[in-house]
Amino acid sequence: MADSDSAPSVHVPAPLAPKKENITPVGSKIVELNESRTELLNRIQGLKQDLQNWRSKLDTQVKVYRDELSEMKKSLNVEVDQLRSEFQELRSTLQQQQDDVTASLKSLGLQDVSGDAKEVQDPKTDGKDGEVHASSTENDSVKEDEN
């Protein structure tokens, strides 16, 4: 038995000859891959077209929003200008009324017109009941007259 163990066993591979059966599946695989490639390219083209359409719609929407914002801004600026004009008119009217009151007080012969005008503009009020109180100098002069 030692002789059989020492003899090397040699395995000779069979020659690789191309068989017609092996070539046909490769050809069908190539056809399948080409079809798959064509489908993928078509899908990519479709996705590119969808993306381009989406970008176009987005650009259009952005333009619409910008136009709307521009119109709103113009409208607000017009309203602000109108309000400024109205406030300026009110300021002028109030100034004219104040001047008229001052002139009327002067014509009535009041001596301290500027002091009286200031009291008319900024009367002292009691925070609790909102009544207007005379200034302390007037109260002092009234007390002196009583004495």
UniProtKB/TrEMBL annotation:
Name assigned to this protein: CAP-Gly domain-containing linker protein 1
Top-level taxon: Eukaryota
What spans are recorded as compositionally biased (Basic and acidic residues)? 115-132
Q: Where is this region: Disordered?
A: 1-23, 105-147
Keyword Cytoplasm set for record? no
Q: Which residues form a coiled coil?
A: 30-100
Give the PANTHER family listed for this entry. UVEAL AUTOANTIGEN WITH COILED-COIL/ANKYRIN, UVEAL AUTOANTIGEN WITH COILED-COIL_ANKYRIN
Q: Which UniProt keywords apply?
A: Coiled coil
Q: Could you say which residues form the signal peptide?
A: none
